[in-house]
C-alpha cells in the first residue's frame, strides 16, 4: 500500500485538521465557491471611450451599452439576466446592443431570456444579433422570442438611427448606421447585403458575434465592430492569459482593439458555458462612448 492510500488514525486526522491540512482544505473550498458562485455573478461595468475622426457633433458623447452571451440554461438563470438588465438601465445609454448567444443547450430558454431583456431601455432602441449557440439550437425560435419581446433582431440588415433631430426622409444628416450580420461560424453572414444602402464614410457600427471577423470587416468603411463570443476565455491566468478560447475568438478575445482603420470591442459576456467557472474574467456590461478626435 502506497503512502497516499495509508489509512489515517483518528488522532492523526485530528492533528491534520488542527494543522495546515485544514487551511489547505478551506482554501480549496473557498476557491471553488469563488470561481463557481461569486465571480460568475459579479458583473463589471466597463466604460470605454472610442475616439472617432470626423464624428458629427450630435454624436459626440453618444453612448452604447453592449451586453452579450447570456447563455440562459443549466448554468445561467433568468434572474442573472434580470440583474444585468437593471445595471444596464442604470447607465442610461442612448442605444443598447445585444451581440448574440441567448441560450445554452435549448432554444426554449430564449423565451425566459427575452422576457428579461424586454425591460432594457434606450432612446434609440434595443437591437440584437444571433450567435452560434442560437444557431446550434434553433435560430428562428430564438429570433422569434426576441422579436415578440419587442427587440429588433438584425439578420444581415441595417438600421439608420437619427441623432440630433435629423430628418429621416432625407437619409442624410447626423445619422448613426447600425449593421447586424448573422453568425459567422454557423449562420449565413452576408456583410454585402447588410451594408447595402449605408452611405460610404457614414459613422457605422457593425454587430458581429465572432470578434475575429474584424479582419474581414476592416477596410469596408465600418467605424466600430462590437462582438462577444469569447467570454474573455472565462479563465485568465496571470502571465498566461486565457488557456482556452473558442473558434474565431483567438485573435481578439477581449477589450478595445484597432484593426486597420476600424475599432473593435470584444465583450466578455454575461453568462458562461461548461465548465461553469470564471476566474480573473468577470462578466461584463460595456458602456462605449463615442468621442470626436
Structural notes for this entry:
It is a single chain. The protein is an alpha/beta fold. The chain has 2 domains: 1-41; 44-292, Purple Acid Phosphatase, chain A, domain 2, CATH 3.60.21.10. Helix content is 25%, strand content 22%. The chain contains 8 helices and 12 strands. The protein has helices at residues 10-18, 20-38, 78-90, 110-117, 132-137, 139-148, 191-195, 214-217, and strands at residues 44-52, 63-67, 95-99, 126-129, 152-153, 157-162, 175-180, 204-207, 224-227, 255-259, 262-266, 284-292. Strands 1-12-2-3-4-5 form a 6-stranded mixed beta sheet, with helices on one face. Strands 6-7-8-9-11-10 form a 6-stranded mixed beta sheet. Helix 7 (191-195) links the parallel strand 7 and strand 8. Helix 4 (110-117) packs parallel to helix 6 (139-148). It is globular and about 55 Å long. Residues 1-8 and 168-173 have low confidence and may be disordered.
Summary keywords:
293 residues; alpha/beta; Purple Acid Phosphatase, chain A, domain 2; 2 domains; 12 strands; globular; disordered N terminus
Fold blueprint:
Elements: H1 10-18, H2 20-38, E1 44-52, E2 63-67, H3 78-90, E3 95-99, H4 110-117, E4 126-129, H5 132-137, H6 139-148, E5 152-153, E6 157-162, E7 175-180, H7 191-195, E8 204-207, H8 214-217, E9 224-227, E10 255-259, E11 262-266, E12 284-292
Parallel strand pairs: 1-12, 2-3, 3-4, 4-5, 7-8, 8-9, 9-11
Antiparallel strand pairs: 2-12, 6-7, 10-11
Helix pairs in contact: 3-4, 4-6
